[in-house]
Amino acid sequence: MPQKTALAILALTIMGAFSMGQGCMVAASRVTFAYARDGCFPCSWWIKRVDRHTQTPVNAVWFNTAIGICMTLLIFGGTVAIGAIFSIGAVAAFVAFAIPIFIRVFFVGDRFRPGPWNLGRFSIPIGVIACAFVLVMMPVLCLPSLTGANLDPSTMNWTCLVYGTPMLCAVVWWVLSARHWFKGPKVNIEHQMLGKEENIVYGKDRSDKSGGSSANSLTKDMRDLSDRKAADLA
Questions:
Q1: pTM > 0.70
Q2: Run of H or E including 9
Q3: Maximum average pLDDT range among 10-14, 35-39, 81-85
């Protein structure tokens, strides 16, 4: 391959890796802010702070940046150390996606409120298939690529240790401490999900003796609601 062509491909690879890293940083910062908002981390009061100028969780971004830099320094420790970090990417992603699917399929059931786009009657079967796929793939991703005499510490797949140890610590922390004080995520957009209290329209009982006055009352309430929304937009 000509040198210029190789350099062009390398440049595209670097740009792609940088863009992917930025996407991961955005997602990690969003999750970090959410956990800090719920008080799950030490110094959550600092991590969850929102910058007054940008209105973004800048501290959460810098927190993740510092962790990312420290983990990247493991590359100087050799391929085993940094390879152990890279190896957990697929397993962690599978687990992160499978947990809400598992809860929705096996715990929530008919109480689940579907969004504007949903799988309908195929939701449960596809969810079961997805959970089964993750259960099959997790052991596969933890197996070493070599066996027998060719397997040594440098070729060992350390995913079980690198990923399993923090997860075990999290479970122990939940059993011993967090389950006593953690009450679930804090909802700070309730007005967007349910509407303001004064904007709730209450229907009238059709069995009302006033006959057609119930429909007229509901229509009036809806008209008043539209007027208030127009006033808010103004």
A1: no
A2: helix 3-37
A3: 10-14
